[in-house]
Write a structure and sequence with these properties.
about 240 residues, mainly alpha, two-stranded antiparallel ribbon, 10 helices
Length: about 240
C-alpha cells in the first residue's frame, strides 16, 4: 500500500506519546532532567555517526575526508534561507496555536515538546530514505523500523515534556507523506548519491538537535531545515562543471 510506512510511523508516534504522557505523572523532576540529557547525548552520537560515516573514508590505508564543501554549503546557505523565512518561529507559532486550541495554556513545556520532538523524528536518514523507498517501490520496511525507534524516543520525550510531543505526529505525517509523494512522482530523477548526500546533511542537523536537548537551545535547527535541499542544487551545479 502506497504511503503505509508513514501511516505506521505516525501511529507509533501517537501511541508512544500517549504512553509517555501517562508515565509523566509518576516521574520526579530530577529523573525527567537526566532522561532528557540521556536523550540528548544519544541523539548527538546518532547524528555524529551519520556524518562520520559519509565524511571519513580510508583510501590506500590513509584516513581522509570527503563531502566537506557540500556540508559547508548546505549548512551556510540552508541556514541563511531558513533564517530569512524564519521557519523555526513559524513552527513555534503553530505549537502555540495548538496549545491555545487545546486549552493547555498552563503547560509550559507544550511548545518545547512539540518543536523538539518534531525536529528529532523528522530530520534524519531513515525519515528521508525510508519515505523515498516507500514512494519508489512501496517498500515500507525502513519506515517500520523507524516507527519502532520513534515509539521509544517519543515515550521518553512525552514522559518529560508532556502532551505537546504527541502532536509532532502531524508534521511527521505531512513531511514524510510529501517526500513519499515526491519520490513516486519524480523518483527517477533522484540518484542514490543524492539521497546519500541529503542523509549526510540531515545527520549534521540531528547532531545540532542533540546539543539543544542535552545542553539547552544553542542552534535554531528549524531555521536550518532548508539545508536538506541544498545537496540537490549542489549536484546540479556539479553536473555543469
Amino acid at each position: 500500500m502506497f504511503g503505509l510506512g508513514t501511516l505506521i510511523n505516525t501511529a507509533a508516534v501517537i501511541a508512544g506519546g500517549l504512553i509517555g504522557v501517562t508515565l509523566k505523572k509518576g516521574i520526579p523532576e530530577k529523573h525527567s532532567q537526566i532522561l532528557m540529557q540521556a536523550c540528548g547525548i544519544s541523539t548527538i552520537f546518532i547524528g555524529a555517526a551519520g556524518v562520520m560515516e559519509k565524511m571519513l573514508v580510508i583510501k590506500d590505508g590513509t584516513l581522509s575526508s570527503q563531502g566537506t564543501m557540500l556540508l559547508i554549503f548546505s549548512l551556510v546557505l540552508g541556514s541563511l534561507a531558513g533564517s530569512l523565512l524564519d521557519i523555526e518561529a513559524h513552527l513555534e507559532n503553530f505549537g502555540e496555536f495548538l496549545k491555545r486550541k487545546l486549552h493547555t495554556e498552563n503547560d509550559t513545556h507544550f511548545v518545547e515538546g512539540f518543536v523538539t520532538c518534531t525536529l528529532v523524528i523528522c530530520i534524519g536518514a531513515m525519515a528521508i530514505v525510508g519515505s523515498i523507498k516507500d514512494g519508489l517501490t512501496g517498500d515500507y520496511s525502513t519506515l517500520t523500523a523507524k516507527a519502532i525507534l520513534d515509539f521509544v524516543i517519543v515515550i521518553i520525550f512525552a514522559s518529560t515534556l508532556g502532551k505537546g510531543v504527541i502532536f509532532s505526529a502531524l508534521p511527521l505525517f505531512l513531511y514524510q507523506g510529501l517526500i513519499t509523494c515526491a519520490a513516486a512522482a519524480f523518483g527517477d530523477f533522484m540518484s542514490a548519491a543524492l539521497i546519500s548526500d541529503i542523509s549526510y546533511v540531515g545527520s549534521a542537523l540531528i547532531f545540532c538537535v542533540g546539543i539543544n536537548i542535552a545542553f539547552g537551545k544553542k542552534f535554531p535547527v528549524g531555521n536550518m531545515l532548508p539545508a536538506l535541499l541544498i545537496p540537490a542544487f549542489y549536484a546540479g551545479i556539479q553536473s555543469f562543471l
